[in-house]
Every structure is written in C-alpha cells, then in structure tokens.
Specification:
This protein is an alpha/beta fold and 329 residues long. The protein has one domain: Vaccinia Virus protein VP39 (Rossmann fold, 3-Layer(aba) Sandwich). 24% of the residues lie in helices and 19% in strands. The protein has 8 helices and 11 strands. The strands form 2 sheets. A 9-stranded mixed β-sheet has the order 8-5-6-4-3-9-10-2-11. Strands 1-7 form a two-stranded antiparallel sheet. The longest helix is centred in the middle third of the chain and has 20 residues, at 125-144. It is globular, with a radius of gyration of 20 Å.
Length: 329
C-alpha cells in the first residue's frame, strides 16, 4: 500500500557515511533457505528480471515475484504494507529464521527469534495473522537487499511496537538504524483521546558496518525558530531529524493520483536521497500508485514496483505514460 514506525540512532551529520555504524557488531546473516520458507507457487513462471534490464512494474502477487529476483540487487527496499485491520491475511510460514540452537546468532536479549515470536503473538491473534502475512515478505526483502542497503518499513501506531521487537530478533538489533515519525495534521480528530496523527517508519540496515547514508544529499527544511540561529543558518535551513512534519497529499495538488492511500513524494524523496546513489536500484512491492518509482526516477535511480491491484496498475500506467522505457509485466 505504498502509497497503498529505541536503540540509540546515529544523528544526521554533514557528510556521507561510508562504513557507517562501524562500532556495531558484525552483521548477522539470515539463513538462505529453510523448509517451509515462503517460495513461489508450484508451476509459477520464473521472472527474468535482472539489474541490466529496464525499470519494471509487475502486476502480480509479490510472493510470486520476489523469489525470482536475484540476491542483493537493491540498495533500498521500501515497504508500506496494508495496515492491520484485523482481517485474516494469506498465511505463509517462515520456519527458524533466527534461532539460538545450532550456534547461530541470538536475537533480542539473547533469546531466539522463535521464542520471542511465540511469546509476543500469544497476546494478540490479530497481529499473529498480520505477522504471518508480513514475515515471509520481510525475509525476502532482507535477501534482496545489497550489503550496503537499507530497509524502510512503514507502519501505523497499532503495529509498530510489536514489529520493532520482532524485527530486532529477525534481523539483529544492531541492524536497527532509526524509528522515523511522520507527523501530519489533517482529517478528523478524536475528542476522547489524543488524536493519532502520525505513522511510524522503522529503518534497518543490512550491514551496520557498511551501509550507505548521505545526509548531504537530503533536502533541508526551515528552522522552526529561525530567530534562535544565525541568519546564515536560517537561510541554509536544517537537516531533518527523525520526526518528519509533512502534509499528506493535497486533494487538489499536483501529486494527486486518486489512489486512496497515496503517500507524498516528499516522504519518499528523503529516503531515496539519503540511502541510495544515482543508478542504484529501489524496490517497492506494495507499490500502490507508484510514488516510490516516480521519486526514484526523478532522482536518477532505477526501480522495480510490484502490485496485484488492477487499480494500482492503472494509476501507474498513467503516471509513467511519459516514460516509455518502463516495462509493465
């Protein structure tokens, strides 16, 4: 639905990060394959995408496409899955992704991923269904990330804290980089509690010793209190922190595609600017209206988008109509 969230985090600095997070432990590896791990459906065609090919939009279930993509092909993976409404999702199982047994690295607080998962999901059946849906897709996203790559997972407040604990165990707590809060002020407001006006974006890096992060490439924003800084600094603006104040897509704005859960380009732009270089590949397999691809193309990056919704594909065909090199499959 892209368009269709703490450990101490590095600050936004003034120079690109090469080998950022060098003080962290060595990155943990997810096993290559396990019995029961999500794979393409039997008889499904192998898809012949490669990094030498064009920007591509797939109309397909993402768990049909993802297993066919090559390892470590993407510098950025952005996921904006459907928020958990309590409805049962398609269930696929990943077994023993991380375990204390057999000498592999332990996750959160030294306990196995399997144990943490069992303890946590015991408390909330609705999240259990949702995590069964997300888990194999996250494992595939991790496989597809380049060694210097970054995963951005966009969630709402109902799921972010469950997901943070499980992702620390699944990927390793040392791979956690940031919790980004996207704050906005639009729509109806509850009167019986503080209105919920933010989403959470959890950020994990494949290799804590060598991920790409270039803060100098990120668009600056105005100071909230420009009178408290020098005129030079006020004119230059400041780098964003981990709290992003950004409006939703305006009803009559230039970006509006009509897709109901479209995210603003400004949110994706920050991610792509900071975590990729020109020519790098970006993946979004809950692509929605294609904002991730539009931003990637505008910044000179390459993209693969996946969505099974025919309405989303229709929006993307219109959005990329002036880009004849984009392949639709």
């Amino acid at each position: 639905m892209s368009d269709s969230s703490t450990a101490e985090s590095p600050e936004f600095g003034d120079s690109p990060v090469a080998g950022a997070g060098a003080e962290a432990d060595a990155p943990r590896e997810l096993p290559a394959s396990h019995p029961g791990e999500a794979q393409a459906a039997p008889g499904a065609p192998r898809l012949d995408w490669s990094p030498e090919g064009p920007d591509t939009v797939f109309r397909a279930d993402n768990m049909t496409v993802l297993p066919s993509l090559p390892d470590a092909a993407f510098t950025l993976v952005y996921l904006d899955p459907p928020f958990n409404t309590g409805r049962r999702q398609e269930r696929r199982t990943v077994t023993a992704v991380r375990s204390d047994e057999g000498g592999s690295a332990a996750g959160f607080q030294g306990r196995s991923y399997r144990r943490i998962r069992g303890d946590l999901l015991h408390y909330d059946d609705r999240f259990d269904d949702y995590w069964e849906f997300l888990e194999p897709r996250l494992a595939e996203a991790w496989r597809l990330l380049a060694d210097d790559g970054t995963l951005y997972l966009h969630l709402d407040y109902r799921e972010a804290h469950y997901a943070k604990v499980l992702l620390d165990a699944l990927f390793g707590r040392d791979s956690f980089l940031n919790e980004i809060i996207w704050a906005y002020d639009y729509g109806g407001k509850a009167k019986h509690r503080w209105p919920a006006k933010h989403d959470t974006i959890l950020v994990y890096v494949k290799n804590p010793r060598g991920y790409h992060f270039d803060s100098t490439a990120v668009d600056r924003e105005p100071y909230m209190a420009p009178g408290l800084v020098t005129p030079e600094k006020a004119s230059r603006g400041k780098l964003p922190t981990d709290v992003w104040w950004h409006t939703i897509v305006a009803t009559a704005g230039r970006e509006k595609t009509g897709y109901p859960t479209q995210k603003p380009e400004g949110i994706l732009r920050r991610m792509v600017q900071a975590s990729t270089r020109e020519g790098d590949w970006v993946l979004d397999f809950f692509a929605g209206s294609g904002t991730t691809g539009a931003v990637a193309a505008a910044l000179g990056r390459r993209f693969v988008l996946v969505d099974s919704n025919p309405d989303a594909i229709g929006v993307m065909r219109r959005r990329f109509a002036r880009m004849p090199s984009v392949a639709f499959r």
